[in-house]
Design goal:
This protein is mainly alpha-helical and 213 residues long. It is built from 10 helices and 3 strands. It folds into 2 domains: 82 residues, Arc Repressor Mutant, subunit A (Orthogonal Bundle); 122 residues, Four Helix Bundle (Hemerythrin (Met), subunit A) (Up-down Bundle), CATH 1.20.120. The chain has a 3-stranded antiparallel beta sheet with strand order 1-3-2. The radius of gyration is 19 Å and the shape is elongated.
């Protein structure tokens, strides 16, 4: 069955009206980030600036800025004629996100002095831990990439997980591994990244099933 653009627009309006009720505060970017990561906005759906501005009840400028950021963050892809499409966030995509995060951090740790490693191993929170690594990245592009991976994807997991005890446990193991050689550090990251990826997969499944029930 083929749907007309009017029917698709009606669907988008309904989705966005629900989002406005659910996310009563926050910028257009924050609302769309949360909605895409949680699965409230279906993958593959095609949107325009005008439709989003209308459905969110805001001007086009903040929507345009949000779409630029979302494209950089890997959540949408740009199409011709000011259209954008929500990317497919499948298990492969999710695992690659946290694998990339680990690879960037491991590479950065190679330049750390023993004093920096000791200070890093004492970071109590995951936010402080990743921020300490990020600020030591020399390449602006890689630094921005890690900021995106930790600030968007990791933050979403930590804010929505019902399994924080497990995540904190592997985080403690990761910090402990910093005092060992890089093979142990890589093993620590492999476990940490897999737990985060598995948790995001479960969060999305849970939210999508809840929305369908």
């Amino acid at each position: 069955m083929r749907f007309t653009r009017t029917a698709i627009m009606d669907t988008i309006l309904l989705i966005m009206l629900e989002l406005r009720k659910k996310y009563k505060s926050g910028s257009a970017l924050e609302i769309l980030q949360e909605a895409i990561l949680s699965g409230d906005v279906p993958e593959g759906i095609i949107l325009t600036q005008n439709e989003l501005a209308l459905s969110l009840g805001i001007s086009r400028m903040p929507v345009r800025e949000a779409l630029i950021a979302l494209e950089y963050q890997g959540l949408i892809e740009r199409l011709p004629s000011q259209h954008v499409k929500v990317v497919r966030i499948d298990e492969e995509f999710i695992r690659s996100i946290f694998s990339d995060m680990g690879l960037i951090e491991i590479e950065t740790l190679k330049s750390f002095t023993n004093e920096k490693i000791i200070m890093l191993s004492k970071c109590d929170t995951q936010a402080d831990f990743h921020a300490a690594i990020t600020k030591n990245i020399k390449s602006p592009f890689r630094r921005r990439m890690l900021e995106t991976l930790t600030g968007i994807y990791l933050s979403f997991v930590l804010a929505n997980s019902g399994n924080l005890e497990k995540i904190n446990e592997v985080f403690r193991d990761l910090r402990a591994s910093l005092r060992c050689d890089f093979e142990v550090i890589r093993a620590g990251y492999a476990v940490y990244d897999e737990v985060l990826a598995s948790e995001l997969i479960q969060i999305r499944k849970g939210k999508i099933l809840h929305a369908q029930s």
